[in-house]
Design goal:
There is one protein chain. This protein is an alpha/beta fold. About 30% of the residues lie in helices and about 15% in strands. Strands 4-3-2-8-17 form a 5-stranded parallel beta sheet. A 4-stranded mixed beta sheet has the order 1-7-6-5. A 4-stranded antiparallel beta sheet has the order 11-12-10-13, covered by helices on one side. Helix 13 crosses helix 14. The chain is globular.
Length: about 450
């Protein structure tokens, strides 16, 4: 590729914030709210026009479970978000904390109120485009771009909630990406069908692939819908006559490559239209008059970079239900690694191939996520929260979902504020017992006392 040397010029510098959070998805929202709540002057930078990431702009139609099948385990700000969502859904049982559908427009307002109510400032339609360092281990300046042009922003501590570890990676952090060959989990372009017959949807066959009689298998067998290549089909009734879909897969999508994502969005819109036609033909009672109302403004990315942190969470930790002295939240979600290209043929036969690697927990079981997994090795003043924390690949399939991201984001924001207040911006020096105590004061579920928990090696 040809190169171009930028001309030397000056740009505006903003240096009045204590904490800058980049990325306004679930982790970014709770990180910004928590940092501001702790008294840090906080800015949240978001590249789109709404907070919430995949739950809003991405149109994911339902929350992953908030419980361990016995009790709510994603508490604190995560519980506040869930409660606020359910207040607009009076038809749901009051005690439901799993399989809760998402009203994307309502969730946008929930996040606006959460972040703004805590006192953080929000900058929409603003993109991180460069990271500059002072010395080997300290990020000094972020270069942002928006309608005002380029501008420089400085703070003692930064929180990377980009989902792709952009800030950390561009700042020099060690990262991994995908499996040993570089292949990443397939993407999904979520969509909404309206004018659905609710009775037909509620009382018809389950669409999910776990149902051996799901219509998805007849759709695949028909051969009439070539863009639908495997049985991934999740859906939720999100409003009157309106069903949201997390369905279909797109392989070879790299969210760190804009060309790749652009191609995937074009293909995803065509795939969504084909799903509408397939469902109308095979589930006519519910979908014969369905209308493709919307596709996500964001591509549903499950995996890109993972940082190398002070600790890497492993599948062995997951299988051992391990606790850690520095854990900042618990997680009970299963190992959810979606179908690779090589497994497409197996996926057509049902769920068995998928279930073999999920290692699902029983009721009441969970594992801890250590604070060290949020701390990139080699960077003094950057924390990471969201799907790109330090894990091995299988465990990333568990830690990547939205309720978990809400919980770890709150911890990251709180830690960032404490790093500014007590440790000169050094996130590795944060007093973890103090951090855990504050998290528990705010309602976090951290059942294992630090002195009694295992280190996990």
């Amino acid at each position: 590729m040809k190169e171009y040397a930028l001309q030397v010029r000056t740009i505006p510098l903003h240096d009045g914030f204590d904490v800058i959070v980049v990325g306004g998805g679930p982790a970014g929202c709770t990180a910004a709210a928590a940092a501001a709540r702790e008294g840090a002057k906080t800015l949240l930078v978001e590249s789109t026009g709404a907070l919430g990431g995949m739950g809003t702009s991405g149109l994911v139609p339902g929350w992953c479970p908030f419980s361990d099948k016995q009790k709510l385990i994603y508490r604190g700000l995560a519980e506040k978000v869930l409660t606020a969502c359910k207040q607009a859904q009076p038809h749901l049982p009051a005690d439901r904390v799993d399989a809760v559908p998402i009203d994307a427009e309502q969730l946008k307002r929930v996040y606006d109120d959460l972040v703004g109510g805590a006192g953080a400032e929000i900058l929409f339609h603003t993109t991180l485009c460069a990271v500059e360092k002072a010395g080997d281990d300290t990020v000094q300046t972020l270069i942002l771009a928006n309608k005002s042009g380029l501008s420089a922003w400085r703070a003692p501590v930064y929180v990377d909630c980009t989902g792709d570890a952009d800030l950390a990676a561009w700042g020099g952090a060690l990262v991994q990406k995908g499996d040993e060959t570089g292949e990443m989990q397939p993407a999904t372009h979520c969509f909404i069908l309206s004018n659905v017959d609710e009775y037909g949807y509620r009382h018809g066959p389950s669409l999910h692939a776990s149902n051996p009689a799901s219509p998805i298998y007849a759709i695949l067998k028909s051969g009439q819908y070539p863009r639908i290549r495997d049985s991934h089909l999740c859906s939720s009734l999100i409003g009157p006559g309106t069903v949201g879909f997390n369905a279909g897969h797109l392989w070879d999508v790299d969210a760190t490559d804009p060309v790749s994502v652009s191609r995937a969005l074009i293909e995803g819109r065509k795939l969504a239209a084909q799903f509408r036609d397939a469902l109308a033909a095979h589930v006519p009672r519910a979908f014969s008059n369905a209308f493709l109302a919307s596709t996500g403004a964001l591509m549903g990315i499950r995996e890109t970079r993972r940082i190398e942190g002070d600790y890497r969470l492993t599948l062995a930790d997951y299988l051992a239900r391990r606790s850690f002295a520095d854990e900042i939240c618990r997680c009970s979600y299963f190992v959810d690694v979606h179908t690779s290209k090589a497994e497409i043929g197996q996926a057509l036969g049902g769920q068995q191939h998928f279930e073999k690697r999920t290692h699902r927990y029983g009721p009441g079981e969970s594992y801890g996520i250590p604070y060290r997994c949020l701390c990139p090795r080699g960077l003094r003043n950057v924390l990471v929260a969201g799907r790109s924390i330090s894990t091995d690949r299988p465990v990333q399939g568990s830690t990547r979902v939205m309720p978990v991201c809400l919980a770890m984001g709150e911890a990251a924001g709180m830690a960032a504020a404490q790093a500014v207040r007590y440790h000169g911006g050094d996130i590795h020096a944060v007093n973890v017992p103090r951090l855990r105590a504050r998290l528990m004061e705010e309602g976090a579920y951290l059942p294992v006392p630090a002195q009694e928990s295992q280190t996990g090696g």
